[in-house]
Here is the input.
Amino acid sequence: MRAVVLVGGVGTRLRPLTLRTPKQMLPVAGRPMIEWVVSHLGAHGVDEVVLSLGYRPDTFQRAYPDATCAGVRLVYAVEAQPLDTAGAIRFAATEAGIDERFLVVNGDVLSELDVSALVAFHDEAHRAHGALATIALTPVDDPAAYGVVDTDSDGRVRAFVEKPAPGEATSHDINAGCYVLEPEVLERIPADRRVNIERETFPALVADGLVWAMSQPGWWVDVGTAERYLQASLDLLDRGAGRGEAGHVADSAMVATSAVVTRSVLGPGCRIGRNARVEGSLVFSRAVIGNGATVSGSIVGASALVGDAASVTALSVLGNGTEVEGGASLAGAVLPHPDTWPSA
Here is the structure.
């Protein structure tokens, strides 16, 4: 089984953490996000992953120089220009020589989806009804922020409803960012231009009655914002990725005996000072949390410095190398300020 994993986006909503790092290479509970995605696919029999790359592809290539990630073989497909989701799928599959049914996964989604069950469901729909695509769905409490997928009783997709108004949703099932596609779908995607699979390719296939969908409840996080990025890491700690009450503390992290660390992720080489408190937070590699400082529900980037007695709370996000003066109090802050960021 082969899979195309879409990792070409610039991660605008996760800036400043993604100013120099693709979001799928950001650490999540002690390992890069992409490793969680690929290891999940490997557990369901995927033996080759084609990474559809665009933004800073060298970051992936340096991290996995032997073209192996989480025990799965990698193929690198680097777009010369952004082709959007469907265009990227066509480009990557063509580059890798894919000529049989395959998986497509959004590289910024972490979940416990039963990929094997999805493939089996697709294969049956393909044999019985000629399905060319099957979409994994996941139920959410409030679908208003997503696109709802409406299906009939057999699972055939009837329509996509973009961000229904509160109370008007016909379903609570949303696109989970995982698909099974037949190679014929590639022929329906124009080459050498931007094509979006959700807005162009899938609706055309639905019009021909060729798309099925399977809903699966369970843990699912679209890691597209700082809030959901933090949530994904903490969820994984709760699901067994931690090492006790402190969370996940890298072996080379230095934590003062008087410091208190709870349900957090501490990266390699970071330092937590005397009487400091780190709660429900991510502290990247080589960051320093000063004596008596507090970091709560926030993200501290690599080599950042939180000065003595400073307070960083309420989903503050400190980019790599940021310095917070001693005694300062930040709540919901983003540093450096967005006005200083380069254009996307």
